[in-house]
Every structure is written in C-alpha cells, then in structure tokens.
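Entry for the shared binder. Reason: the reviewer on the internal report wants the predicted structure included alongside the sequence.
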Amino acid sequence: MNEQLEEAEEKLKDATSQAEQARQGAADAKADYLRLMAEFDTFRRRTAEEKLALVSSASADTIKGLLPILDDCEIALAALENSSDAESAKSGTQMIFTKLTTFLKGKGLERIEAKGADFDTELHEAVTTFPAPSEDQKGKVIDVVQTGYTLGGKVLRYAKVVVGA
C-alpha cells in the first residue's frame, strides 16, 4: 500500500511538473506574442511616418521645380503690361510653356498623342462620335478635346477625344 502511495505521489509530482512547464510555456508564448505585436505596431507607425515624409518631400521637390516657371510668368505679365507687341507676348508664353513641359517630362510625364490614332479605351475617353469624312477614319480619333497624359507609364488623365463613326 505504501508503495502505491509513493507511486501516486510520484505521478502527482510529474503531473504538477508538467502543468508548471505548460504554464511557463504559455507565459513565454504570450510574452513573445506581446513583444511581436509591439514591434509590428512600431514598424507600422514608422512606415507611415516615412511614407508621409516621402510624399511631403516629393511635393516640395515638385513645387521647387515650378518656382522658376512662376518667376517667368511674373516677368511675362510685367512685360505684357509695358508692351503692346504681340510677337513678344507669343515668344514669352512659348518660353514658359517649353520650360514647364521640359520640367514635367523630367518628372516622367508623357503626352498621349491621340489625333489620327485608333481609338483605344486604355488611353482615350470618347466625348462624342462624328461621321467620319472618309471610310479609313472610322474608329479613329478625329479631334482631341483635352490632351491626355501618362506618368511613369500609367494613365494620369485620359485623352478626351472625338471618334469617327
């Protein structure tokens, strides 16, 4: 009987030891989980801050690049007030337009050349259709109402066009 009691006590000690190990394992797993969640929360917050800083930096860079063009507009307006020469107004406006398009091309902006091209729903938005003057112009862009642009290969604004029917 004494032997059975010792055996039962031994089993009880083993069970208690296993239960304690399981509790310790659960506590360790919970601590690891909480640490991992805290690290992930920090990562998410840091990533959001970096993204915001990147957008802010990109905006500042774009505006900084447009400032010389703004200066040219002010100079052109001042020159137009003092001059009635249409040719100088035209050349000043052309200079500003060229400078602006060069800057935007440097940022990855590309014009969608649509006039005379086949109508493509990936690049064009049909505003209306117009009877085609000839059979070969059916399904082609006859006129461009608003120029479309791509930025880095993605359509930024669809070209609004008149399509021959």
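Summary line for the report: The beta strands are 109-112, 124-130, 141-146, 148-151, 154-157, 159-164.
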